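pasting input
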Amino acid sequence: MPTVRYVEYNDASPEVRAIYDEIMFVRTLDFVPNFYKALASHPATLRRFWENLKTVIASRRIDPLMQELIAIAVCSVTNCSYCIASHMKAARTLGMDDEMLGELLSIVSVFSDTSRLAAGYQMELDPQFAEANLNHV
Amino acid sequence: MPTVRYVEYNDASPEVRAIYDEIMFVRTLDFVPNFYKALASHPATLRRFWENLKTVIASRRIDPLMQELIAIAVCSVTNCSYCIASHMKAARTLGMDDEMLGELLSIVSVFSDTSRLAAGYQMELDPQFAEANLNHV
Amino acid sequence: MPTVRYVEYNDASPEVRAIYDEIMFVRTLDFVPNFYKALASHPATLRRFWENLKTVIASRRIDPLMQELIAIAVCSVTNCSYCIASHMKAARTLGMDDEMLGELLSIVSVFSDTSRLAAGYQMELDPQFAEANLNHV
Amino acid sequence: MPTVRYVEYNDASPEVRAIYDEIMFVRTLDFVPNFYKALASHPATLRRFWENLKTVIASRRIDPLMQELIAIAVCSVTNCSYCIASHMKAARTLGMDDEMLGELLSIVSVFSDTSRLAAGYQMELDPQFAEANLNHV
Amino acid sequence: MPTVRYVEYNDASPEVRAIYDEIMFVRTLDFVPNFYKALASHPATLRRFWENLKTVIASRRIDPLMQELIAIAVCSVTNCSYCIASHMKAARTLGMDDEMLGELLSIVSVFSDTSRLAAGYQMELDPQFAEANLNHV
Amino acid sequence: MPTVRYVEYNDASPEVRAIYDEIMFVRTLDFVPNFYKALASHPATLRRFWENLKTVIASRRIDPLMQELIAIAVCSVTNCSYCIASHMKAARTLGMDDEMLGELLSIVSVFSDTSRLAAGYQMELDPQFAEANLNHV
């Protein structure tokens, strides 16, 4: 159950409605997802989030499908059901099949595993890795 | 400071040494990282982890650079310094420049942001997203 | 579905019932929330938690509304639905409106964003910040 | 060790330098923190983050000290050392003393405790809490 | 709602079916849990996970009940409902009663509390602890 | 660098000193760890934490070594270096060897892995698990 009332399209202020229109156009949706209808309870937050998302969408070196895979990776760690369902739909539309999803979740799992082992054993950073990062240019 | 003694190459059992050799060959390293030298304090864990990593490396649909970007994304959320330094080196070697890194960390940040907003507002999943996932095949 | 049976008021031991009475009085509730009815499956845990909560409630420098906002912030990061719903109710009762909630969740999001960027870029602490903390008295 | 080279003020582009100037003015600092010098390796990320932060700073219902306390709460859960040191300095400047900090960290601890207990016992949301959130307006 | 179609026993390939059989035998279940039926959408992930789990089950120094308690501890922090329900069933079968569960969740809570306090106060490691770990052999 | 000044034994109030004495006695230490010297900057927090810890120590069904293993598991997920070093020392003193530590961290890793897979695939809880938990008594 949401913790605010959704702002429906017909009840929205002109400013919010303009953002809704842009969201549906850019993300090729024919409805306003509940996520945005909840954010609209505080228009500054809706605007802030949407500006952020547009910056991400404008990425030139990481293509749209890969953006969605990274989003699924992040949300599998933060454990956000809504986000996962939403990014899965986008990734499926962009061509993700079960094999790609399986590989993705294995990568997430194994590197999440690495984090636990590194925490438990508290390994020190090898100087070779540190130098590599400083001198990569 | 590590919580176990590192198992140095010269002190390792033949079984551990064989895994060390394979790690250096597959990852084209001329040293054994501390990460593996700590895991070797419990050879079954070293073997388990390395088998897992080889499964990931064998991914066919997600290329090596993208694997490293996803690894950086995951470890930025789990906040593992060792892992980040190690994956950064690998990603740099595979061609990641500052622009790609900047785009990656923005994607991570914005979708981590989504998770917080979704938690705080507890939005319900839109039936359109749910259906899409069930019917994607 | 809970992982223990709730201890209902009428089935509770006198010790548990006394804590239930105190909870309802201090938090001005006319029912015992499921949270406490589950904790009561191990009375020592119920007692421990309630003693902790009373310490927090006794805060003198952070007022009750602000305590609830901080609770919502923490639970948005730990992603605890039950906690969020419960603290939302308390915060609403104390006067939180949608604008305050929107500002709160933006603060949570932006500083969660900071954490990801700081992890990904591994910035070193500026000596000016370190000194300030040591010398603040 | 950072994973990019810091962009020093004297080496920065006019666009980045303008943001640096604004940061130092708004946050009353006489230096550019490493955090921003790393973000500047990808100017779009620096600009995005700074725009976000200005939105937060413009909060009207949550005062600057309380913003910093919430930031410390969030970063204590995400475990970001850089962020904690930076927000501590800001909070100290705004008047946070050891008593306020102690109360804050107790609130964070106790409600982080709640999250673990709610996860372990999987309590169901009481209908009284759910209704309260829907009907609060 | 799952993000892939479950692979039912009757629709599974011989390889997947053999793993299903082994899972039911080793874990003494008379059904294939949804967890494995979802993993089977990518057989390499099912195989990888199951090999990992068998390694854990083969632990000699940490008995089966204690393994389940540790699993519940981990999943209470990662906040995974499915995992908690599944490990609770296993732990109950192995003899965990409400007292043991209450003690377990208190341990999880108090040491999760420690983590928040250590983050907020950024205590430095006492040399006595560091030395002890290095010299324990 | 700590964010408060440590309260040294000789500078402590009689109330704080009494708690320090009890800590050293109960945990058989000949020094006051920095953790407690930082908490003492807010005596109510020191007292609250120590009361919590004594409740845990009084566990009857989970022995001291197992308590430390669970603590290491939790702190490997929350990624708290100080906590890990401190619990490692205690566990080593109680008899944990490298094999037990290796098994422990594998359990933590594999069940942290489970959490990621369950998040990514969003499996539904099997009714058999749910019923088992309700009917265990």
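fyi Residues 61-137 of chain F form a domain with the AhpD-like fold (CATH 1.20.1290.10).
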